[in-house]
Amino acid sequence: MMRTVFFKKALAVAASAILASAFLTVKADEGMWLPSLISQRIGDMQAKGFRLSAEDIYSINQASLKDAVVLFGGGCTGELISSEGLLLTNHHCGYAQIQKHSSVEHDYLKDGFWAMDRSEELPNPGLEVWFLDRMEDVTGAVLDGYEPGMTEQQRDSVVRTNSEAIAGKAEKDGTGLRADVESLYYGNQYFLFVYRVFKDVRLVGAPPSSIGKFGGDTDNWMWPRHTGDFSIFRIYADKDNNPAEYSENNVPYIPKKYFKISLEGVSEGDFTFIYGFPGRTQEYIVSEAVRYISEISDPHKIALRTLRLDIQDRYMSASQTVRIQYSSKNAAVSNSWKKWQGEMRGIRKMNTVETKKENERLFEEWAAGSEYSGIVGRLDSLYRLMEPYAFAADYYNETARAIELTSFAAEYARRLEKAAGVSSPDEATQARESAKRLAAAFYKDYYMPIDKESFIALMDMFDRNIPSGFKPEYFTESMGRYGSAEAWADSLFGNSVFSDSSALTKTVAAACADEVGTDITLLTDDPAVEFGNEFRKWYMEGIRSVVQRLGSEITLLYRDYMKGHMEFNKDRAFYPDANLTLRVAYGSVQGYSPGDGTYYLPMSTIEGIMQKDNPDIFDYNIPQRLRDIYAEKDYGEWTVTDASGRLTVPVCFIATNHTSGGNSGSPVINADGDLIGINFDRVWEGTMSDIVFDPDLCRNISLDIRYVLFIIDKVAGAGHLIDEMTFTD
Ligand code: ARG
Ligand code: ASP
């Protein structure tokens, strides 16, 4: 394998300096910037209307806006809005918690939930929020001991050892700290992130889904939008205000900083700033990688999910119980399904593959004779080698792993196996308890007809689209033995002990009767466990190992490519790809034109909710209370006057901030640093922004804070929460 090694220690420092220096231009509003380096962008932000300083955004010496922002539940963002730990995020971010507390008798998804005093706030074991304590460039320390000429494996091991030491040391600085070292720009730079983790986070309020998920999956990723996508939690701490496990004795957390709320609202052109945790972007990948995503991966994954969604939808509309059971799963399946469709179209519309190809040609011309020469060609060949494996991995995730019973059964057996394997009785009990909890959660929301039909549809597609050389032997054998996916499903679902939760309980009770040695052969021979294990083995040994090996060669080349690119494009401001670390995105409120002859205004109001209201369509059936309020125009102080002079309630708005999955729940901040909204989505035509950002089409969608307050005040009657908040005058 060819390798260009140019990262001497001194060079590492020099490269850091290049990365850190202020680059001149960036395409309008593209970019998710590191808060600690925001001084490099603050001039541009201020030129666009921002009135605060870099220290107001991020500071290690004083409370700053970063102290009011959290990573919520490992995949969303939230913000503090009171001196007593009150936190805002999206309804879809709190959805799993709301769903877990729901049953047919207490259907908080359907009816909403409002704690009328602190004692009614609901604990959520397992839910965490992370505050960023500080971040720091540790490139030099991470590469300490690295010598030019080392192999990539040796470099990895240096990086890993140093990172662990750096993070371990940082965690010792206080209570509840968690530290990670993250690679940026494919390992051209490394940053330490230190978080303070809170584990007692209680549900305070959520509107009914007819508001919080208004428009459902039909309106998801779409504009104009009218979804009241918010929920409210409260962080609790021990009596010293430190992170602690859940306890009745915990008290509301007093944050270093919380957002003041502005009721001034927005007009087209106004500056907005999003502070949050975007999850993953791939802005610098080569044309060959984009081609795989938009021409192969996205279309196949979409087709596989269409099958599952059709099956789920059919059973969900026939039964309220099934609707509750599958609401959260269905939303998750449908969300990416729809996003990929927008992404694929956006990439084609922007001609990204061709544009990148041309760019790569120019890069190679420039690079001729240098250390960067030939990188693109090498990346292309690696991608071509990887393609069938990446495809098989996509299929594994979207077929075998999407089957609920077999995935659960294999995991359950793994936990019992662990119980049987450990010598300490305590550990064995723990493992058995964790299996029990897994089973309880699984059966609460399981409906076998959906799963069995999905099994048949997915196995058929697997059979049709995975080349025979790539199929697991177990699969080919089973299909041969049963003759069809239907017959296979009949046998598997008919004979598995997991198909019947009470049979499983008996079997396990018998197996565990002798507490010392659990006999789990009964379970490992089970056809559902066998399916899960066989597919997993095939994937881990035959597919993932290759994807990882080629993947690390690809990353290595990208490290050079990225660095070369920065030299090649000296005038461009580069920002690191999203990696679920805290970022700043800024832009302005703007409408857009999705196609010829159409222009979308940037704001929506309650008028649009009434236009969509339809008692016969589940997603558009609003609560009667909202209809009454509208009829009486009983809006309280949460109003605007629209262009035609009508008094109405603002609902959502769009802007040009560069956001991604994970930015859901992020605070939307105005030029003075005050809270004006909650980010929750992007427009469909712009979902390719994780790969390529089009300033004309990419828009983030936010909930106007005044709609949030209107719902809390007028619909929920939970004004005591508003009394906790602070407003700008
Ligand atoms: N599209 C938004 C995001 O990616 C919201 C998803 C939740 N809403 C839904 N209807 N599935 O998370
Ligand atoms: N809805 C997304 C989220 O949950 C945000 C986005 O993808 O724009 O983070």
Description of the structure:
It contains 25 helices and 19 strands. With 729 residues, it is of the alpha+beta class. Strands 1, 2, 3, 4, 5, 6, 7, 8, 9 and 10 form a ten-stranded antiparallel beta sheet that branches. A seven-stranded antiparallel beta sheet has the order 12-11-17-18-19-16-13. A hairpin with a 5-residue loop joins strand 2 and strand 3 (86-89). Helix 17 (473-482) packs across helix 18 (485-495). The model is unreliable at 1-26 (pLDDT under 50). Residues 76, 659-664, 680-682 line the site of aspartic acid (ASP).
Notable characteristics:
729 residues; alpha+beta; 25 helices; 46% helix; 14% strand; globular; binds arginine; binds aspartic acid
Please give the structural blueprint.
Blueprint: H1 9-20, H2 42-47, H3 54-57, E1 69-72, E2 76-80, E3 86-89, H4 95-100, H5 108-111, E4 113-114, E5 129-137, H6 139-142, H7 152-171, E6 177-184, E7 189-198, E8 200-206, H8 209-212, H9 216-219, E9 231-237, E10 251-252, E11 271-276, H10 287-318, H11 320-349, H12 352-367, H13 375-398, H14 404-421, H15 425-444, H16 448-465, H17 473-482, H18 485-495, H19 501-512, H20 521-524, H21 527-568, E12 583-588, E13 603-605, H22 606-612, H23 624-632, E14 640-641, E15 647-648, E16 650-655, E17 667-669, E18 675-682, E19 700-704, H24 705-715, H25 719-724
Antiparallel strand pairs: 1-2, 1-5, 2-3, 3-9, 4-8, 5-7, 6-7, 8-9, 9-10, 11-12, 11-17, 13-16, 14-15, 16-19, 17-18, 18-19
Helix pairs in contact: 10-11, 10-12, 10-13, 10-16, 13-21, 14-15, 14-21, 16-18, 17-18
The protein binds arginine and aspartic acid.
